From TrEMBL:
<feature type="active site" description="Proton donor/acceptor">
    <location>
        <position position="275"/>
    </location>
</feature>
<dbReference type="Pfam" id="PF24827">
    <property type="entry name" value="AstE_AspA_cat"/>
</dbReference>
<keyword id="KW-0121">Carboxypeptidase</keyword>
<dbReference type="GO" id="GO:0004181">
    <property type="term" value="F:metallocarboxypeptidase activity"/>
</dbReference>
<dbReference type="GO" id="GO:0008270">
    <property type="term" value="F:zinc ion binding"/>
</dbReference>
<dbReference type="InterPro" id="IPR055438">
    <property type="entry name" value="AstE_AspA_cat"/>
</dbReference>
<protein>
    <submittedName>
        <fullName>M14 family metallocarboxypeptidase</fullName>
    </submittedName>
</protein>
<dbReference type="GO" id="GO:0016788">
    <property type="term" value="F:hydrolase activity, acting on ester bonds"/>
</dbReference>
<keyword id="KW-0378">Hydrolase</keyword>
<keyword id="KW-0645">Protease</keyword>
<keyword id="KW-0479">Metal-binding</keyword>
<dbReference type="InterPro" id="IPR000834">
    <property type="entry name" value="Peptidase_M14"/>
</dbReference>
<keyword id="KW-0862">Zinc</keyword>
<dbReference type="GO" id="GO:0006508">
    <property type="term" value="P:proteolysis"/>
</dbReference>
<comment type="similarity">
    <text>Belongs to the peptidase M14 family.</text>
</comment>
<feature type="domain" description="Peptidase M14">
    <location>
        <begin position="29"/>
        <end position="303"/>
    </location>
</feature>
Length: 308
């Protein structure tokens, strides 16, 4: 079903006037500085917390957002290094809070075996405005290649390159929400001058493998771990999830590097993008956070079993 967005002309990509109108409609709805930053700061007792950049959005909302990485201590070059990223899409709440919960509850137990690096909230303006895009109407999760236009993504790329570290595993924490159909996909079609056809939003958790470097066994390990916490999404009547063929229960594939996705930002041979459904009548916000943690734990246990 096509939904016409209220900004722009059908079939014509947005210019600066339309982007300015869109930005003028965005409102701060919650606080990164109250809800996320204190949790990051509290981790300094047990982890190394580094500021890797900032987003100078004073002209947009009167704020400059600091960007933080959280690292396990006793970083050793002979241990595998793993990356957990959250809040690439700031509106995807359990991605941010799942990354933080993993640090608060599980990360230390693994830090004697792996170097843990977590980027808990890559898009804090998106977190505050409950938004998929940054203020320039750019999706950070299509900007992790060398030509990407979102500063949120490029600052991550620069920070990771400066670490000179090879990664064994990268888990990128996301959600699929009802607002994908009601707001974000219609807005994207309007911005790009294309036609939007809504997906069926899957009820439940699923994961996205890399079509260019698939690791089905990793995805199965993640699904099995998450299934202990919340329900796994089932295919629609066409055997698909969000328009993509299901590869195995709860798993679809995307070509991550070709799309500039965050999960392509490292050289890790093991990657997965998690997708939780927070609007499900069968899942609470707490379950969504726990599902993200379970996904990371399932992936780590798989990695360590392979190393063992």
């Amino acid at each position: 079903m096509e939904k016409i967005y209220h900004i722009g002309t059908v079939g014509k990509p947005w210019g600066e006037a339309e982007k300015t109108q869109w930005l003028s409609e965005q409102q701060l709805k919650r606080s990164f500085f109250d809800e996320v930053l204190p949790a990051i700061t509290a981790l300094k007792n047990d982890f190394d917390v580094e500021q890797y950049g900032e987003l100078p959005y004073q002209a947009v909302c009167g704020k400059t957002y600091p960007l933080f990485a959280v690292k396990s201590r006793n970083w050793q070059s002979d241990k595998p290094t793993i990356l957990v990223s959250g809040g690439v899409h700031g509106y995807e709440t359990s991605g941010v809070h799942g990354a933080l919960r993993f640090l608060q509850t599980k990360a230390q137990a693994y830090s004697n075996k792996v170097n843990v690096l977590v980027l808990p909230c890559i898009s804090p303006w998106g977190y505050e405005t409950i938004n998929r895009w940054n203020p320039k109407a750019i999706d950070p999760n299509r900007s992790f290649d060398a030509n990407g236009k979102a500063t949120e993504a490029q600052q991550v790329r620069q920070y990771l390159a400066g670490l000179s570290t090879h990664f064994a595993l990268h888990i990128d924490l996301h959600e699929t929400t009802d607002s994908d159909n009601s707001e974000f996909r219609p807005a994207k079609a309007a911005r790009d001058g294309t036609v939007n056809k809504n997906w069926n939003i899957p009820d439940g958790y699923y994961t996205v493998d890399d079509a260019e470097h698939p690791c089905p066994a990793l995805q199965k390990a993640i699904i099995d771990s998450v299934a202990k916490v919340t329900h796994i999404a089932e295919a629609d009547e066409d055997g698909k999830l969000i328009g993509e063929p299901m590869q195995q229960p709860g798993v679809i594939n995307y070509a991550k590097a070709s799309l500039g996705l965050c999960a392509s930002v490292t050289d890790a041979p093991l990657v997965s993008t998690t997708e939780v459904y927070p609007d499900s009548p069968s899942a609470t916000p707490e379950q969504c956070i726990q599902a993200q943690v379970a996904a990371v734990v399932g992936a780590l246990d798989y990695l360590l079993a392979q190393k063992g």
